[in-house]
Amino acid sequence: MNINNQKEILGEELDTTKMPGHWLLARLGKRVLRPGGRELTRQMLNGLCIKSSDEVVEFAPGLGFTAQLTLNQKPASYTAVERDEAAANAVRRYLTGSNQTCLIGRAEDTGLTDATATVVYGEAMLTMQTPGKKQQIVQEAFRLMKPTGRYGIHELCLVPDDLDEDTKQEIQKALTDAIHVGARPLTVTEWRTLLETEGFIVHTQATAPMHLLEPKRLIQDEGFWGALRFVGNVLRDSEAQHRVKKMRQVFQTYEENLAAIMLVGIKRNSEEKGFDRMPSH
């Protein structure tokens, strides 16, 4: 998708100085907007092991990068739940069958039927939620899932586990100021506990550096020419350049305490929920 298409999708009327950081990056031509990049998304999908028999639900697909990878696995069905109409329209461009749909809705209250999916996943969206909303979204994933279904997340995380509260709040404020969206990342253990408390057994875990705007990651995610186009678009827009520079500065300032995490959990039987929690490792 080129930059002109992204501007059309995301709305040229939005003020560059105020729009959410991920929308700004998308309008500048960045396709991969996940904190751990293309590689951590692939690891999540490998952990989910999507097959032709699977019924997949994706929360907040954004512009559909991961949706395309999922659809390549030809699951029995694919349902995306996206809050934003413009982003939903972007995803719908990739949907070709009657068993593929993108609904307008909220991840914490999808309106879908109980036990309707074997795989549920969402990326770079729980980080932006309050503690209560995080819990509601994970509960909704549990509700939607058939027994032994798989749930995957790919989010921003804080390291190390014993990071003090003052530093956590400082990082949250810096991130929120830079990306213009409330950012509330958790530590690795806190992310695992969120899933385990709501009835999932974590069986796959991986982390990666938070290098979203570093040259090496840009090339890995976008390809050489895609990265070059993105940088060119940034340099041609002074307001966007200021925003991107500020985001990158925040990521670099807190590099030792920011990472990306991927977890895949298996749904416990309902009578087991809340008991025999797996130890973190």
Q: Could you tell me how far the N terminus lies from the C terminus, measured between alpha carbons in angstroms?
A: 39 Å
CATH class: Alpha Beta
Query: What global shape is seen?
Result: globular
User: Helices and strands, in N-to-C order?
Assistant: HHHEHEHEEHEHEHEHHE
Low-pLDDT stretches:
1-9, 272-281
**CATH superfamily label:** Vaccinia Virus protein VP39
CATH topology: Rossmann fold
Structural class: alpha/beta
Percentage of residues in DSSP E strands = 15-25%
* Domain unit count: 1
Distinct helical segment count: 10
Report the CATH architecture.
3-Layer(aba) Sandwich
Question: How would you characterize the largest beta sheet?
Answer: 8 strands, mixed
Q: What would the average pLDDT be, to the nearest integer?
A: 90
Number of separate strands: 8
Q: Rounded to an integer, what's the Rg over CA atoms?
A: 18 Å
Q: Helical proportion?
A: 40-55%
What does this structure look like?
The protein has a single domain (3-267), classed as Rossmann fold. Helices cover 42% and strands 21% of the residues. The chain has ten helices and eight strands. Strands 1, 2, 3, 4, 5, 6, 7 and 8 form an eight-stranded mixed beta sheet that branches. It is globular, with a radius of gyration of 18 Å. Residues 1-9 and 272-281 have low confidence and may be disordered.
